[in-house]
Amino acid sequence: MTSDSSPTTVPTVPEIPREISRHQQVRFKSKDGKLLLLLPPESENTGTQTPASNWQEIWQQIKVRLNAGERFWQPSTEVHLIAGDRLLDVRQLQALADALGEAQLQLTRVHTSRRQTAVAAATAGYSVEQISSQTPLQPNPEAPAQAFADPLYLETTVRSGVEIRHPGTVILMGDVNPGGAIIAEGDILIWGRLRGVAHAGAGGKAQCAIMALQMEPTQIRIADFVARAPEKPPAQYYPEVAYVTPQGIRITKVADFSRNQLISPSR
User: Fold this and answer.
1) Which residue(s) pair with 176 in the sheet?
2) Is residue 175 a contact partner of residue 187, using CB atoms and an 8 Å limit?
3) pTM for the complete prediction?
4) Separation of alpha carbons 128 and 165, rounded Å
5) What is the rounded CA–CA span in Å between residue 66 and residue 13?
6) Percent composition of the chain: helix, strand, coil (DSSP 3-state, to 5)
7) What is the pLDDT of residues 208-247, one digit of tens each?
8) What is the pLDDT of residues 8-55, one digit of tens each?
9) 3-state SS string over 189-252?
10) Which of 234, 233, 242, 240 is nearest to 261 (CA)?
């Protein structure tokens, strides 16, 4: 009688090199029932060849974290990707979502300061929060408010459950479905149907406006002013604009609108 004495092969998970600092590592953090996936900032690696300076190394770190034996999250937990200034495309986001799905996690929102990443995330159907990459070194409370970020141009459909946040103007070539939302500190221009929520002037500027080819919103907000669409839809739709007057939010035809109709900044 013979026996097989060959050793059993045990799969191993690659280790992250010890020389990677904490700020260059992929991290998971639990917060308010959600799981934050924090990517290392790209700016810290400028001009250096660090292990976290490319997507392959980041991807390896993500796989290590997801395959680790000690998981502190519950199945079906929502994941917010904190991408920072890192540039990601649709393919990378989809690969990341697939890997999270295999670990019973669901990618729902992407936080980024890169417009290209915001566009990719919105195109892939995720909620997006674009944050400003400009942070003053010496904050001055008496300094004037910062200008809006550059406009965010999107060509997609904002579906139910998806929320787009941007610190400037949002221009959408597509529809906002019921349950979808666009929140912008500037104007909102929709070359399509607005059937969800639109909030312009989210930073408090009431001089912003919301425009759409077909205005059927669930709710519209400009700064702190709120309005809903009439219960009875119009017999015919025209491109319309919503703006604030001393009496509240008014919706009128774009052809009849002028910026001079906006309330003064001192209002």
Assistant:
1) 158, 194
2) no
3) 0.79
4) 6
5) 10
6) 20, 35, 50
7) 999 999 999 999 999 999 998 777 777 788 999 999 998 8
8) 444 444 444 444 445 568 888 988 888 999 998 886 554 544 434 588
9) EEEEEECCEEEECCCCCCCCCEEEEEECCCEEEECCEEECCCCCCCCCCCCEEEEEECCEEEEE
10) 242
